[in-house]
Amino acid sequence: MSLNNSSNVFLDSTPSNTNRFQVNVINESHESSAAMNDNADPPHYEETSFGDEGQNRFRISFRPGNQECYDNFLQTGETAKTDASFHAYDSHTNTYYLQTFGHNTVDAVPKIEYYRNTGSVSGPKVNRPSLLDIHEQLAKNVSVAPGSADVVANGEGTPGDEQAENKGEDQAGAVKFGWVKGVLVRCMLNIWGVMLFIRLSWIVGEAGIGLGVIIIGLSVVVTTLTGISMSAICTNGVVRGGGAYYLISRSLGPEFGGSIGLIFAFANAVAVAMYVVGFAETVVDLLKETDSMMVDPTNDIRIIGSITVVILLGISVAGMEWEAKAQVILLIILLIAIANFFIGTVIPSNNEKRARGFFNYQASIFAENFGPSFTKGEGFFSVFAIFFPAATGILAGANISGDLEDPQDAIPKGTMLAIFITTVAYLGVAICVGACVVRDATGSVNDTIISGMNCNGSAACGLGYDFSRCRHEPCQYGLMNNFQVMSMVSGFGPLITAGIFSATLSSALASLVSAPKVFQALCKDNIYKALQFFAKGYGKNNEPLRGYFLTFVIAMAFILIAELNTIAPIISNFFLASYALINFSCFHASYAKSPGWRPAYGIYNMWVSLFGAVLCCAVMFVINWWAAVITYVIEFFLYIYVTYKKPDVNWGSSTQALSYMSALDNALELTTVEDHVKNFRPQCIVLTGGPMTRPALLDITHAFTKNSGLCICCEVFVGPRKLCVKEMNSGMAKKQAWLIKNKIKAFYAAVAADCFRDGVRSLLQASGLGRMKPNTLVIGYKKNWRKAPLTEIENYVGIIHDAFDFEIGVVIVRISQGFDISQVLQVQEELEKLEQERLALEATIKDNESEEGNGGIRGLFKKAGKLNITKPTPKKDSSINTIQSMHVGEFNQKLVEASTQFKKKQGKGTIDVWWLFDDGGLILLIPYILTLRKKWKDCKLRIYVGGKINRIEEEKIAMASLLSKFRIKFADIHVIGDINVKPNKESWKVFEEMIEPYRLHESCKDLTTAEKLKRETPWKITDAELEAVKEKSYRQVRLNELLQEHSRAANLIVLSLPVARKGSISDWLYMAWLEILTKNLPPVLLVRGNHKNVLTFYS
User: Fold this and answer.
1) pLDDT, tens only, 346-388
2) In the record, which residues are listed under signal peptide (predicted)?
3) Are 920 and 1019 members of one domain?
4) Rg over CA atoms, the chain
5) Residue 659 φ/ψ region, left for φ over 0, alpha for ψ in the -120 to 50 degree band, beta for the rest
6) Residue 682 to residue 708: CA distance in whole angstroms
7) What is the DSSP letter of 603?
8) Which structural domain, as residue segments, surrounds residue 421?
9) Segment (H or E) for 828
10) 883-911, pLDDT tens digit by residue?
11) Number of domains in the chain
């Protein structure tokens, strides 16, 4: 194959339009090798270029003359597949290259559909071939038809795709907004509030132009930092509906998101009432001027406010498109009003306006107003607290994120531009009004300067007016006294009133839309289950109509109360708390260093975001300290509630990432610290199989590892590797979830192996991490060892040998009924299925009975349709017959009760510790830890040790001294002096009968026969072996007699585990030892440490 570099092959270098992604397709053909030899130019390869973004993000460029050959290419890079004659493995013709790369293989090419969430509204979720699909050998009866591999690779025909596609079609008609109408307009309208028209002049009068600019700048710093953090978060993945709640919850998790989401939605709902009351107050002031009051000021505010909020609700319910049109109209009115003010500042002032303090631009007025002149009770922070709510509103666009075409692009662009434009407007108005209007004016045209009067540096005096009496008596005009300064300065006063109406109504409308949208997103996530009713949406835009009416009710309630001065600071603090958490979310995500944190908006810094969060919290206390305290208390309460409820969601929050980083750092730090005996704790591998199948074994282990040590529930899958791995992988999450659901602090681990012993050996060597490695193996006693196959016994005893080889302690637990309840679980599962089928059958019969009155053919078809649901009736009947044939008495109730015995509180009793051999102290440490647990705290420790008959008291005193140094409390100490006495004949006979089936009896046979039997059955107990360890066998039988005598009534017996020397003790003899040692006793723990100290009396 060669590359043809002739001049007619390549594209013209000047494409018709510049696109973001361009691929120049090169002609590849083995037939053009001659041209390659004739042409010495270096080869040209496939080129990729990135340019300015155009309408299409991906474009394929064609060579002249070959356009028609590539007409079947789609813009997504897929072929139209119109030629059915293409062979799946044809790689030698030009037609092969007309198909998508990857068409002839099950292995899939990269596609966005593989990375979508299930049910995504942006398109269907497609499942790529699994690793098994491309790794395992193809079935022989599967034929690869042309294009079939491409169908699999592209995920066509995947179950569930049709539903997702239909959902996408339903959303196709939804109204979506761009960054201007969706974000910029809304943010500008929300930031430009009533404060711009009726309070900014007063702020300049109090703080002066200099501090006024600083106040505006400080407010803008808070909002800008929040805007930057929000931009970083919303460009780190697809943003759905919910605004601030969505951003915070997906970053910090449901605990923070759920707490702030509820109060943020409530704050927006109450803000509707605040803005509507502001509008109503302005209308009432106009009614006062014209003497047109309806009842009285308070009730007029209620009447006008109620009518207004009903109209706004109608606009909102009509749909987002109508609401957006209303917002644009209100913005135009607002812009005209602002422009009207600036025009008015250059229109020459008349005598009436001069008397009220307006003199156009004057350097003397600017100089006089530059410094502060705080009145009594006011200061920088009090004035800042009054102005700051005017700078809020930057979340207005983000709150409708679900209605934006491209939230990732629209929110940063619209929000930051809105902050810039509104900041320029605020600064411009503040400086202009400070340069045109004096602080105090009488309003009287007769207060002019008398010749010879000393001005004392007053700007008004220098301009011919005497406002000196304002120092001694209150005046009604000037920056300090008149809230309607902008109306006076403007070219046409009524336009300022229209601007006030526009500012209040637009903010109210934005809040009325924001609150239900945020609340709906919160309810959809089911954080608060009682609020699920409000999650439902209606229409093509999924409008939260129920949320609209809830917001309407809240707004109406606060309008009728008409006492908003008290609630206003709390609402402002609710918004600030949202800003603080947005900043903290950005910091937290950056600090967690998760690879998933890749925001496209790169102009951010985590420390700047942290500073923004701290600044927001500080501003909360500056505005109103008690409101800030109330906000934190409410948020903390909701956080605790959500944490307690533990919603079943997983959003990959930065909290999870930080938890991982913290755990990893701590694990690495532990590796630098040497182990010390004082910090020893049992870290156990428990061979439970599935944790639910042997709950008693897990419970007793968890009792001494909970909150103190590592516990790993392990399962070994034995069998064909493919089936074992599949079964193992499918159950991992389920079994770990079972541990979490049952509040068991343990991990689940599983391995697939050729035999049980190999699997356990792998677990013993590889489990754990760093210093958090298991040091103790916990297994259940093999109760059926006499009936078990030889390999099972060899594996069971072999894992004990392996544990000792790896210097890992061993604990064998025996209870009378055994541990395995898998059969009981299987029966319970069948009963549950039967109950579900019974309920479904009853529901179907009930539905049929309710429709018996529907006669005719239509009713008949309805009944037939219902009956089709219960088609598999024979199977159900067979199940019923099967279960009915089983009596309740057949269930092993004792086994079920035994499986829960360690979950119950142990009454007053004893834990008998038979410390016969020193293993480092593990046999003493485990029962001590048990006595610290709530279920075992009423049990006392009784210590049994071996000793000489003539030194009973001395050895008891010595053991008491040792235990006291270990600081282990005990109820009694018993020194047993007759352990080495031979057991009675009956007990020994039981032991001999026990081992009889496994004896070789070679001494009774001739030498040749004996040798042959040894070769054929090397596992059997020889007479020589039995004679060599006869004393040890006596000891095990004698110990059982002593245990029956002293510890038969104990709640738990902890006993030294005998060690079988490798190569000397056969497996069956060892099992017989364990059997006779623990026979007919309460629950027994056979414990053997690794003979390294786990106890110390040194400090």
Assistant:
1) 988 888 888 888 888 888 889 888 988 888 878 888 888 888 8
2) none
3) yes
4) 42
5) alpha
6) 8
7) -
8) 179-446+455-645
9) helix 822-850
10) 443 444 445 677 888 888 898 888 899 99
11) 3
